[in-house]
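Revision sheet: structure tokens.
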Amino acid sequence: MNDITNYSENIFENIKHINEYGQEYWYARELQQALEYKQWRRFESVILRAIKACENSGNTISDHFANVGKMVDIGSESQRKVEDYQLSRYACYLIVQNGDPRKEIIALGQTYFAVKTRQQELIENYDSMTEDQKRLAIRREMAEHNKLLVAAAKDAGVTTSLDYATFQNFGYMGLYGGLTAKDIHAHKGLKKNEKILDHMGYEELAANLFRATQAEAKLKRDNIQGKAAANQTHFDVGAKVRQTIKELGGTMPEDLPTPEKSIKQLEQAERKRLKDKNSK
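Predicted:
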């Protein structure tokens, strides 16, 4: 597992709690510290946006955001009650999606909770997944986030197919140190009809998921308008993710190995496995 994944997993796994029924949850006050929010009132405003998103998605708020109180020491052997929330993994996912996109830790949180939330639907024990299973899961998550990124870019003024190809290239150039999608395609030695995202390993896909989630969030929250501004935003986000990888001692995405099997080959193998399993 790569350095970035280890770093983000340690941060969020270390503050995870398990109740008597084996259900996992996080405390908002502890998540506030992990996400580097100094003031509770600012972090609570993020929670309230996440609650609204939960409601809009048709979920029951109380299933994911439980309002609880906590006694904390205030000195002289005295205590006072402070407001807190017990959060499900989905609630944490919504919180990081609504967090400050300028924070590097938010990028890590978005990927961690996005991947982990999706894995709950796919497999009970995420840690037992093979690298190929993780590739498939993150690639599917990437496909979903790209839809959101397309919508956010369109709202910013990126309207035609050519506009969007240019917009995507700016994101890649930021993340890959100046390489365009065409450059990456050639670097991987791919055929004309092969997609670069289908030929990325787990670590490289995770880096691109950072880029996609961050770019979508920044376009929306900063209300970016105009193709040039959108392109620059995508480049800046990609460059910031690249900087984060460097600071954490990770391998630059263009230096990561290309897997022997493509995502399409993995999907074919998975369909065959399920077909053989069902025919027994």
